[in-house]
Backbone:
């Protein structure tokens, strides 16, 4: 059974997980036509290999630190930092330390894409 997603005009707790980070996993928070928001949770050293999504993407680090490789650059994001990339841009992620981030996808395919590592 799929996990429920937030409805429009519903409040979502999207802040840092704090002590609960170690026991948490990636999870989609919002999925609607043209919009997907998921919490990405990575353990220290965990890598998401280079990949592409067909949507515009914003990644905002909530806690911990991560490396985000895109467009020929390696960016280090810490709590409160964000960046965006255009559609179909190859990117990779590596957790420098345990971290969580909000990833927002805008585009036609977002209502069909699961969050990386998400369990239904």
Residues:
């Amino acid at each position: 059974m799929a996990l429920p997603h937030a409805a429009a005009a519903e409040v979502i707790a999207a802040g840092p997980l704090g002590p609960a980070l170690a026991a948490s996993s990636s999870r989609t928070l919002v999925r609607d036509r043209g919009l997907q928001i998921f919490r990405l949770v990575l353990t220290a050293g965990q890598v998401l290999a280079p990949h592409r999504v067909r949507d515009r993407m914003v990644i905002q680090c909530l806690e911990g630190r991560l490396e985000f490789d895109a467009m020929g650059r390696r960016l280090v994001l810490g709590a409160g930092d964000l960046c965006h990339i255009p559609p179909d841009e190859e990117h990779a992620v590596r957790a420098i330390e345990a971290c969580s981030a909000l990833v927002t996808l805008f585009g036609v395919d977002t209502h069909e894409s699961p969050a990386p590592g998400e369990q239904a």
Observations:
- Residues 79 and 104 are 16 Å apart (CA to CA).
- DSSP finds no helices and nine strands in the chain.
- The longest strand covers residues 35-42.
